[in-house]
Amino acid sequence: MELLWISFMRAQVIKMLHLLVVVALLSPVGGESRKVRILDSFEYSAISCRAHSGSITEFGGVGDGKTSNTKAFHDAINQLSRYASDGGAQLYVPAGKWLTGSFNVISHFTLYLHKDAVILASQDMTEWPALKPLPSYGRGRDAPAGRFTSLIFGTNLTDVIITGDNGTIDGQGAFWWQQFHKKKLKYTRPYLIELMFSDNIQISNLTLLNSPSWNVHPVYSSTILIQGITIIAPLTSPNTDGINPDSCTNTRIEDCYIVSGDDCVAVKSGWDEYGIQFGMPTKQLIIRRLTCISPYSATIALGSEMSGGIQDVRAEDITAIHTESGVRIKTARGRGGYVKDIYVKGMKLHTMKWVFWMTGNYGSHADNHYDPNALPVIQGINYRDIVAENVSMAARLEGISGDPFTGICISNTTIGMAAKAKKVPWTCADIAGITSGVTPRPCDLLPDQGPQKITACNFPTEKLPIDLVEFKKCTYQMNYM
After folding, report:
1. Which of 170, 199, 246, 262 is catalytic?
2. Do residues 108 and 159 touch, judged by C-beta distance below 8 A?
3. Highest taxon of the source (predicted)?
């Protein structure tokens, strides 16, 4: 019995020693009177991982949907900026509703939203500083003056990640839409996310709701990954474009679902004389596995602000339902620039007004100083492997007199016309190109080359640099007080 008692007491002493060691390890250094922390963590995929972490709650954030967190976001990002050259930092937004005005992100930084986190855009205009117009536009889109800073904004940055576990950013856009319709805005409405003059950007795994205007606007930037984004706005909301790559190089948009009142993806590069002078094209753009619903706009629009040029756009595996058009090219006299080397394949469309729409008479201009002799070049437009049902009109293709759109190629395309479809399914003017295996029969300006040319329309096989970007497994460690 004595030996058993000694063994029992020895075991209890060992347990106590282990407990004391654990308490010592968890206790703060220097005798600070802080509570014990219990540590937890989660993983996510990103182009860069961070050495330092913090939660918005550590900087005074309150997730009650009523308290303004603008100062908390500013303070958090300002404090975390000290780690930019020491492995970078990530800011965690936990479950809750976090009301805030505009705030700026920084280089070597990750903003991560919990699945039940909602960043709510403030409706207090004093929390939205004004910016000058973009140099390639010369004015704001809503008003001649500049624009309100986007909810999440940054410029001249590198290595920026905005991601989450499908957390939500809610722009509370109804307030802004009302002001816009009443013509009460001095500045252009804010976007939800805008990064400019930046590189190595990741925007992924988020839900974006009710943006005041455009949702995601990378501009004058390069090496951009936009992935797993859900965008939802009322179908009648004004200018709620989904994703607008603008004067950007090497961009990949994939696995996105967009319901909006405007174009689901709008590719841009500046407006009239301002875009011509700035001269920065959008090129090397990949769009894949996109689903779109937009009854009054396009699945993919090229332009109308395309004066810096658009080249080498590759879109594949695209689905659109109840959307006005599949692919739309918008330009006009005075735009200058070019849209060329466009490749689209694998579209599934249902209930459309037009499958293909090109117009050289899109009359919106920045001001009256544009050069009417600045004619755009539209050439090398390739569409293949397309199936559409319940379509009112197959195509409306209208170039510019004296400046035809050339090199149009459409192949392996079947368009099922609606019961009340237009009697003439194709209208064509000032265009040139070929077709093969297209139903219904195209217009005479797109002569059929026969079934042997059914793969005539090109789609590049070589990879672009953005497809070579690899993701890492990153960890965020959460501290519970």
Report:
1. 262
2. yes
3. Eukaryota
